């Protein structure tokens, strides 16, 4: 039994990732209850603040994906309410959530990350789409990977292998955000490395290798059981796996993150890891990568979540 009183799991929200967030919230609530924790699950609506003021929880576990759940907004509100929560603070979230900014920060720490260009929709239109896209292909080469500068779950993301595919990829990307990140696509093994800090500093869990049936780890491949094969731990040479773990911990520290994070990495054919992005609220669904990494490390998910809440409560 935990010494925690009642805790709050935040799930849902109004981002494109709402359904995934609800699934993550349900999973976290289930594993916490299995450890004897009194759990309340709430969405982010007009009743949230009054309910917290009326009955402040000991701590909050944020399972909101995308939007205000990861950009620091909800965490700012929780701090205004003096309610402790699991995860990074608002400032660190804002930096991590913006992919071009996060890439610049980790590059300044010496981490390898693919060359890229961030292009707002207004610039794309004002300067002439064709001329700008031609220069991007000339500079970065092909293939390219296009994705929104903010957001997750691969929504609006696509691989571009031919120059004529780039305009459609940009249009698809702009459906999910106002700025596109066009990145040199690195062929290789996709892995995710989760990081937890249980009070003794950040520690990386075993890397999880991702092998989608269709070759692209898109939204359906992420959240539809059976569409992706996972290997935990990843099938990497020991020295390559260690490089991935070190990269994830370094990214966690460089971005000023706290408690929990997940770094997405591509390992090229020479065994070099490349930082892609970091997630401050990793998915907790049945097909999510953080629970797989925990299992590979012989860590019980309920025990991990409970301990993270206890640390947050003590911090508060």
What series of H and E elements makes up the topology?
Answer: EHEHEHEHHEHHEEHEEEEHEHEEHH
In the CATH hierarchy, the third-tier topology of the largest domain is known as D-amino Acid Aminotransferase, Chain A, domain 1
The CATH architecture of the largest domain would be 2-Layer Sandwich
Q: CATH homologous superfamily of the largest domain, by name?
A: ATP-grasp fold, B domain
Describe the structure concisely.
With 316 residues, this protein is α+β, with helices and mostly antiparallel strands. It has twelve helices and 14 strands.
SSE arrangement:
Elements: E1 6-10, H1 18-33, E2 38-42, H2 48-54, E3 60-62, H3 73-80, E4 85-86, H4 90-97, H5 99-108, E5 116-120, H6 121-126, H7 129-140, E6 144-148, E7 158-160, H8 166-174, E8 179-184, E9 188-197, E10 202-204, E11 208-212, H9 219-223, E12 228-231, H10 238-254, E13 260-268, E14 273-279, H11 289-296, H12 301-315
Parallel strand pairs: 1-2, 1-3, 3-4
Antiparallel strand pairs: 5-8, 6-7, 6-8, 9-10, 9-11, 9-13, 11-12, 13-14
Domain ATP-grasp: 103-310
Catalytic activity: 2 D-alanine + ATP = D-alanyl-D-alanine + ADP + phosphate + H(+)
GO biological process, one term: regulation of cell shape
Walk me through the structure.
A hairpin with a 4-residue loop joins β13 and β14 (273-279). This protein folds into three domains: 6-88, Rossmann fold (3-Layer(aba) Sandwich); 94-111 and 187-299, ATP-grasp fold, B domain (D-amino Acid Aminotransferase, Chain A, domain 1, 2-Layer Sandwich), CATH 3.30.470; 116-184, ATP-grasp fold, A domain (Dna Ligase, domain 1). The chain is α+β, with helices and mostly antiparallel strands. The strands form three sheets. Strands 9, 10, 11, 12, 13 and 14 form a six-stranded antiparallel beta sheet that branches. It has a four-stranded parallel beta sheet with strand order 2-1-3-4, covered by helices on one side. The chain has helices at residues 18-33, 48-54, 73-80, 90-97, 99-108, 121-126, 129-140, 166-174, 219-223, 238-254, 289-296, 301-315; strands at 6-10, 38-42, 60-62, 85-86, 116-120, 144-148, 158-160, 179-184, 188-197, 202-204, 208-212, 228-231, 260-268, 273-279. α1 packs across α12 (301-315). The protein is globular. Helices cover 38% and strands 23% of the residues. It is built from twelve helices and 14 strands. Cell wall formation. Keywords: ATP-binding, Cell shape, Cell wall biogenesis/degradation, Cytoplasm, Ligase, Magnesium, Manganese, Metal-binding, Nucleotide-binding, Peptidoglycan synthesis. It is found in: Cytoplasm.
């Amino acid at each position: 039994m935990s010494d925690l009183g009642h805790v709050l799991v935040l799930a849902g929200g109004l981002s494109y990732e709402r359904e995934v967030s609800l699934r993550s919230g349900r999973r976290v609530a289930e594993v916490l209850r299995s450890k004897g924790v009194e759990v309340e699950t709430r969405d982010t609506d007009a009743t949230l603040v009054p309910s917290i003021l009326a009955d402040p929880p000991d701590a909050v576990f944020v399972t909101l994906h995308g939007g205000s759940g990861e950009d620091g907004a909800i965490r700012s509100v929780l701090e205004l309410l003096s309610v402790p929560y699991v995860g990074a603070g608002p400032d660190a979230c804002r930096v991590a959530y913006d992919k071009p900014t996060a890439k610049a920060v980790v590059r300044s720490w010496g981490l390898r990350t693919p060359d890229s260009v961030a292009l707002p929709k207004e610039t794309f239109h004002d300067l002439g789409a064709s001329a700008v896209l031609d220069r991007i292909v000339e500079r970065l080469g092909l293939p390219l990977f296009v994705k929104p500068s903010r957001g997750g779950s691969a929504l609006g993301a696509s691989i571009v292998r031919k120059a004529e595919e780039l305009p459609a990829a940009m249009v698809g990307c702009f459906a999910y955000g106002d700025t596109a990140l066009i990145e040199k696509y690195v062929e290789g093994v996709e892995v995710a490395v989760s990081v937890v800090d249980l009070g003794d500093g950040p520690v990386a869990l075993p890397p999880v290798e991702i092998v989608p049936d269709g070759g692209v780890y898109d939204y359906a491949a992420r959240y539809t059981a059976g569409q992706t094969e996972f290997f935990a731990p990843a099938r990497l040479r020991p020295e390559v796996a260690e490089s991935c773990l070190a990269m994830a911990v370094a990214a966690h520290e460089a971005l000023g993150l706290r408690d929990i994070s997940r770094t997405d990495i591509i390992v090229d054919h020479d065994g070099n890891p490349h930082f892609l992005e970091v997630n401050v609220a990793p998915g907790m669904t049945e097909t999510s990568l953080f629970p797989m990494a925990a299992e590979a490390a012989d860590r019980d998910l309920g025990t991990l979540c409970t301990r993270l809440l206890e640390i947050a409560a003590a911090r508060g």
